[in-house]
Amino acid sequence: NAGVTQTPKFQVLKTGQSMTLQCAQDMNHEYMSWYRQDPGMGLRLIHYSVGAGITDQGEVPNGYNVSRSTTEDFPLRLLSAAPSQTSVYFCASSLGSFSYNEQFFGPGTRLTVL
Amino acid sequence: EDQVTQSPEALRLQEGESSSLNCSYTVSGLRGLFWYRQDPGKGPEFLFTLYSAGEEKEKERLKATLTKKESFLHITAPKPEDSATYLCAVQAGYGGATNKLIFGTGTLLAVQP
């Protein structure tokens, strides 16, 4: 199993550009989440999904869209990038609620918005 | 407001020098407390889940404990390979709000040979 994969690893955008961060898992996990990690802030939840076709907002959803058309994939879209979205983005998945299931994280995407 | 605070921010130990990391929390309806390890340039790696006060879990040189207000990650006789950032997170709330984790900012541990 590849686990949780994320592409790209690094990305530089100009203000106003759009892009999609890809996340895929091959463990047949129902729960998937997107986090951003900023210095001194800890990981913050952006959006999450409890299954295909079901998504919900996390703590910091503004400026980001998600969809979950398959169990395996959970892309994160930046509609109009802003410098405040410069961060490291992590995708995570778990078999079910992470109350009782280990959450696996991907390797991250480092995004810089100029 | 739900909050998780980790201390110290950074800790430097000599190999074999045992110590503890602290995670204090103020949340409504704790459903679980989680410890993760994060190496530079990588995603967090799950270590432990604790559910109720008095619970303890161990893995190699690490032992996590939980009280009603805080958790400790005890590191016994650490080795240089234990160097990493250790993250604490809590899951709190009721119903649909339980699908979220609140993370602390982490403790950066450096173990010198």
Describe this structure in words.
- The complex is a heterodimer of chains A (114) and B (113).
- Helix content of chain A is 0%, strand content 51%.
- Chain A is mostly beta strands and 114 residues long.
- The model of chain A has no long low-confidence stretch (mean pLDDT 94).
- Chain B is mainly β and 113 residues long.
- Chain B has strands spanning 3-7, 10-14, 19-26, 30-38, 45-50, 56-59, 62-66, 70-75, 84-92, 101-103, 107-112.
- Chain B is globular, with a radius of gyration of 14 Å.
Order of helices and strands of chain B: EEEEEEEEEEE
Helix content of chain A: under 10%
Tally of DSSP helical segments of chain A? 0
**Helical/strand content category of chain B:** mainly beta
Beta percentage of chain B is over 45%
Task: Label the overall shape of chain A.
Answer: globular
Radius of gyration of chain A: 13 Å
The biggest sheet of chain B amounts to:
6 strands, mixed
Rg from Cα of chain B = 14 Å
Could you give the distance between the termini of chain A? 36 Å
Looking at this protein, list some descriptive labels.
heterodimer; A: 114 residues; four-stranded antiparallel beta sheet; B: 113 residues; mainly beta; five-stranded antiparallel beta sheet; 0% helix; 58% strand
Give a concise summary.
The complex is a heterodimer of chains A (114) and B (113). Chain A has 114 residues and is an all-beta fold. Chain A has no helices and 11 strands.
Summarize the helices and strands and which ones pair or pack.
The complex is a heterodimer of chains A (114) and B (113).
Chain A: E1 4-7, E2 10-13, E3 19-25, E4 31-38, E5 42-51, E6 54-57, E7 64-66, E8 76-78, E9 87-94, E10 104-105, E11 109-113
Parallel strand pairs in A: 2-11
Antiparallel strand pairs in A: 1-3, 3-8, 4-5, 4-9, 5-6, 7-8, 9-10, 9-11
Chain B: E1 3-7, E2 10-14, E3 19-26, E4 30-38, E5 45-50, E6 56-59, E7 62-66, E8 70-75, E9 84-92, E10 101-103, E11 107-112
Parallel strand pairs in B: 2-11
Antiparallel strand pairs in B: 1-3, 3-8, 4-5, 4-9, 6-7, 7-8, 9-10, 9-11
